[in-house]
Amino acid sequence: DERRPLLDGETVEESEYAMAPSWAARNQWIVLALASGGCAAFNGVFAKLTTTELTTSLSQAIARFLGLSSIEGGIELVTRAIFFGLNLVFNGVMWALFTKALTRGNSTTQVSIINTSSNFVLTAMLGFVIFSEALPPLWWLGAAMLVAGNVITGRKDEGNKSGDETAIEG
Fold first, then answer.
1. Which spans are transmembrane here (predicted)?
2. Residue 114 in contact with residue 151, Cβ under 8 Å?
3. Contacting residues for 47 by C-beta, under 8 A, at least 6 apart
4. Sequence-distant (≥ 6) Cβ neighbours of residue 5 within 8 angstroms
5. Burial 76-115 (b: 16+ CB within 10 A, else e)
6. How far is the C-alpha of 29 from the C-alpha of 55, rounded, in Å?
7. S-S: 111 plus which of 15, 105, 145, 156, CB 3.0-4.6 Å?
8. Percentage of residues in the chain with pLDDT exceeding 70?
9. Is the confidence at residue 156, as pLDDT, over 80?
10. Which residue, among 156, 127, 154, has the nearest Cα to 140 in the 3D structure?
11. Where are the beta strands (DSSP E) in 87-152?
12. Is 144 helix (H, G, I), strand (E, B) or coil?
């Protein structure tokens, strides 16, 4: 057991502890999975805005505001194209974040649980705010059951993983 003093009286063990990743660095996958689920929700919003009548109303309002009422159809086409482009962008960002979360996380199941749960909740909130969609209690019950099932599956996955590690170490 060799303890060499470093700067200001630190020992080797203390400096190694200081170099250990912080809690935030170790759990960065959670933020990535939440962001991935959020991007998936926005992807759905923009996909719906590409085809809904709400976009027609929005583009007509934009045309009137800009004094371009004579080309409302063109403004609508451009607005729908922008929403379609945002749909593709958010889809790509979602997959990039999800893949990064999978590589940094300990369990693909846990990453999927966080991603799916955040996607469900944010989709419901955005649907209510943007499209005035009121979801019935049965939808919330189903969503809660899906989240609960994911959590149970995730805990089972955690239990198997910790059991396998002790078997290898022992």
1. 29-49, 77-99, 111-131
2. no
3. 83, 84, 87
4. 11
5. beebbeebeebbeebbebbeebbebbbebbeeebbbbbbb
6. 35
7. 105
8. 78
9. no
10. 127
11. none
12. helix
Look at residues 41, 155, 165 and name the one whose alpha carbon lies nearest to residue 109: 155
Residue 140 to residue 142: CA distance in whole angstroms: 5
Per the CB < 8 A criterion, the answer to whether 57 and 142 are in contact is no
- What are the tokens at 38? 């959020």
Q: How confident is the model at residue 33 (pLDDT cuts 50, 70, 90)?
A: very high
Matching residue, tokens 């170790």: 26
Q: Where are the extended beta strands (E) located within the chain?
A: none
The H or E element spanning position 3 is none
DSSP 6: -
pTM over 0.85: no
Alpha-carbon 103 to chain mean position = 15
Structure tokens at 91: 């889809």
Q: What is the pLDDT of residues 84-97, one digit of tens each?
A: 999 999 999 999 99
Rounded to whole angstroms, the Cα distance separating 67 from 61 reads 10
